[in-house]
Specification:
The complex is a heterotrimer. By secondary structure, chain A is an all-alpha fold. Chain A contains twelve helices and no strands. The longest helix of chain A has about 35 residues, at about 95-130. Chain A is elongated, with a radius of gyration of 25 Å. Chain B is an alpha/beta fold. Classes of the chains: A mainly alpha, B alpha/beta, C alpha/beta.
Amino acid sequence: MTDTTAVSTANAAPNNQAPVGPWREFWAYFSENKGAVAGLGFFVVLVVVALLADFIAPHDPIEQYREHFLVPPVWVDGGSWDFLLGTDAVGRDILSRLMFGARYSLFIGCIVVSGAAVVGIAIGLFAGYLGGWVDTVAMRVMDILLSYPPLLLALVFVAILGPGLENAIVAIAVIQLPHYVRLTRASVMSERNRDYVTSARVAGAGTLRLVTVTILPNCMAPIIVQAALSFSTAILDAAALGFLGMGAQPPLPEWGTMLAEAREFILRAWWVVTFPGVAILVTVLAINLMGDGLRDALDPKLKRS
Amino acid sequence: MNAQTPLLSGNDLTRHYDITGKRFGEKLSVKALQGVSFQLDKGETLAVVGESGCGKSTLARLITMIESPTAGSFRIGETVVDRDTGKPGKELRAAVQIVFQDPYSSLNPRQKVGTILAEPLLINHPEISRADREKKARDMLALVGLRPEHYDRYPHMFSGGQRQRIAVARALMMNPKVLVLDEPVSALDLSVQAQILNLLVDLQDEFGLAYLFISHDLSVVRHMADRVMVMYLGRPVEYGERDEIFNNPKHPYTKALLSATPVADPEHTKQRLKLEGELPSPINPPAGCAFHPRCPVAIDRCAKERPDLEAVAGRDVSCWRAGESV
Amino acid sequence: MSLLEIENLTVEFQTAQGQFRAVDGVSLSVDQGELMAIVGESGSGKSVSMLALMGLLPWTATITADRLEFDGIDLVRQSARDRRKVIGKDMAMIFQEPMTSLNPCFTVGFQITEALKTHLGGSRATRRARAVELLNLVGLPEPERRLNAFPHQLSGGMNQRVMIAIAIACRPKLLIADEPTTALDVTIQAQILDLLLDLREKEGMALILITHDMGVVAETAERVSVQYAGQKVEEQKVRDLFRDPHHPYTSALLSALPERAQGKKLPTLPGVVPGLFDRPEGCLFAPRCAHAFDLCHKRQAVQAGAEDGFALCHTPLRKGVPTSLEGASLEGQVRS
C-alpha cells in the first residue's frame, strides 16, 4: 500500500502553473465589455462624490441665496462662476444639491437591494428546497405582488405608511422582493438534486446547513447580477416616488424631489429640470451597463470555454 | 455462509415511487426496485450490473439511507433499517458512504478541498478540534494519492481522476465499513480509470472495506467483483460468484449482456446474441417474466408466470428455462 | 484516390487564458467505403478535428491546414456557402447525445424531411415516403406512426436511430460518428453498432468512428488512428494495433484495460493529459512515458515510417521493446 501511494502521489502531479485565479478570470470577462467598464468607472466616481460631498460641494445644499434666484449655468449668458450649474427657484446651488443627492440615491439603492435580497433569498431558498405547501404559499404571495403595476403598489404602501424616504424605501423593497424569490427558487431547484448536495446529505447535513452552506453559494451568480440591475430600478422608483411627492420630502436634495419642485420652471429655466434628470439618467445607465458586464462575467451559459 | 451475521445484508428490498399520471389524478407507481436480497461481507465486493432503469441506483439510494425502502429491510451489522426507521444516527450514517459517478458534479464547486473533506467530521463530530480535523483531512489526501498542497484548492483546478480521488477521500473520512460505488469510473478516461480502480483495490486491502460496486461496464466488474448481481427492470435475474456468472451465465439476459459487451481484441470472434427491442416501462412492466418480450428463448409460460430466484448450477437464477441447456 | 484527405490540420482556440492548441498537425486519409476509427481520451482533439472538417466550430477557433480535400473538392478554399452544400449531403455527422441532438420542438418526421428538402427538393409526398423508407432502414418499428412523434416520446436508442436516418437521408459518401453509443446501454449499443456497419455495407459509404472505447474499436474498425493531446501518435490496421502497438501511449492504454489485467492490479498510465499550462517542450507524451529518455524531453517527436505504424515517437516500440535511435548513440544516455 505505502509504496503504491508514493508512486501515485508523484504521478498525480497537478498543473504546476496554476490557471488564473477566479478574480482575474472575472476581470478578463468583465473588461471585455467596454460599456461595463465605463459604467463601473462612472459608478466609482459617483460613490467618491457622494462620500466626499461635505468637502467638495461648493455650497450647502439647502442654503438659499436670496439674491441669486434661478441663475443659469456658467456657460450661459448671465451665469456665474459661483454657481457652476446655476441655482433653483429659491436660490440653492444645483451642483451641490446633485452631489448630496447622490448620497440619497446610493443610500436608497443599497438599502433596498440588501433588504429585498436578504429576505427574498431566504424565502426562495426554503421554498425551493422544501417544496410542497411552503413553496405553494410563498409563490402565490409573490404572484400576487407581481400582479400589480410596481409603482402603483409602491404608492399604495406609501399611502398606508405615510410619505417619507424611509417608507418609500420599504415600499420599493417589497415590490422588488418577488424577483429575488423567483430567481433563488429556480436556482435552488436546479442545484438541489446535484450529487454534491446528496453527498452532504449522506454525510448527515441537516436542512439548514444544506440550504445555507451547501446550496446558497452556488446560486449566488445570478442573484448578484439581479442585485446590480435592481439597484438602478430602486433609484428610478425612488425618484418617481419623490417626483410624485410620496418619497423624500423637500428640502432634502433627492433627485426625484428636485425634479418635482422644478416642474413649474420647465419653460423659463431649463437647467433646473435638466440636471437632476440627466443625473438620474446617467446613473441608471451606468449601473445597467455594469450589470450587463457582471452578467457576461458570471453567467456560465455565456462563457466560452 | 456460516452463522456469523454478514456486514450488510438486504432482505427483499423494494422501492416504489408514486407518480401522478397524465390523466387527472390517476395514481401510478414506478416499481424501481422489487425484492432484492443480498449479502456483503467485510473486504468483499458485490457488483450490481444492469442497464439504465434496472434499479441499481435506487438500491444505492436505499443503502446510503437517502431514501427509505417501501418494503423489506436491510441490516448493517446488528441494526435493521426499514421503512419505519427514522433519521439514522451518526454511527449508522458513518457505516455506509457513497462515491458518485460524475466527479464534476459530486464536489461542491464553492468549497475548498480541505473544507469538503472536513465537512462530514464537522457535522457528525463537532467535538473534534479544528486542528485534528485538518490533520485527518490531510492524512486522507495523502492516502488517496494527492499532495498536501491540494488542501487549499478548489475542485475546478483538478482533473477528473483527481476529483474522483477527492470524492473517495471524502467518503472515507467517517471510517465507513461499506462503500457504495455508483459507477465510479464510468466518467473517466481509460488510463485514469485504471488508476482509480487500483486505488480502490488498495483501500479495500488496507481497511477491509466492503464495496457495493454499481456498474454497467462488465469488463470493470469482472476485474473488481467477488460476486455479481445482474438486474433487469428492478429485479435481480441472476446472482452468484463472479466466475460462475462470467464463464457460464444461465439467464438469457446475462448472456445477452455479456455478448453485447465489446471485447477489446480484434482476433476474438464470438456469436452475438442479439437482443431486439428496448427496455419496457417500469410503470407497467410486462406480465410474467419482465424479460420475456425481448427474450430469445421465451416460452408460453414466461408470459404468464414470473419465475423466482432459484439455485441452479451454483448461483441463483430467475428463469423457467435455467435448468435446461438452451 | 482517397475520399477524404487531411494534411497537417491544426485548430487553435482563443480562450481567456490564451491560445489553446486543440488539434496539432493531424493528417488523415480515408478511402471510399472504408471504416476508420479515431481513438483517444478526452482532450485528445478527436472530436475537434472532425468538427473543424465539418465547419462546425465556433468563431473562437482558428483552423489551418495544408490540405483539406473531400471527394476532389478543396475545402480550404471553399466559401462557407459552398461548403454547406456538401455538408449534410455528401458528408454527415452524428453525435454522442441523441437526446440533445434532436430539436425537442419538432416531430421526428419534420426533422428528417427538413434535411431532404434542403438538399434534394422533391414534393412533399415523395419526401415523406423517403422518410418512412429511411426509418425502416434504420430499424425503427412502425415508421409511419413514429414520423409524428416528438423526440422526448422516444428512447435514447430510438433517437439515435432517428439521428442516423437524418444523417444518411441524402446518401452521404462519408458518415462521421462521434461517440455514437457512449450514452447508450450495452444491448442498445450493440444494436446501433450493428446498424452502422450494416448501413455502411448497404450504402457503400465511408465511416469515421470517433470513440474512446477500445472494445468498440476492436469489434468494428478496419484502420485505427490514435490521438493524444491533439496529435496523431499512431495509425495501424486494427489487428496489428492490438497485437503490436508501436507508440508507448497506445501500448500503455491497451495494457490499462481491465480485461487484459494480470491479477488485481492494473498497470497504469501515470499523470494526466497536458493542459494549457503544462505543455511539455519535447514529446508531448514524454512526462508520462515509461520509455522516455533525455532526447524525448528536449526535442519534439518525429513520425516513424509505415512499418512502425507512423508512430510519433523517437524510439517506436516493436513487440513492446523500444527500437534504438539510428545514428544517435544511446550509450551514455541515462534513461530517466
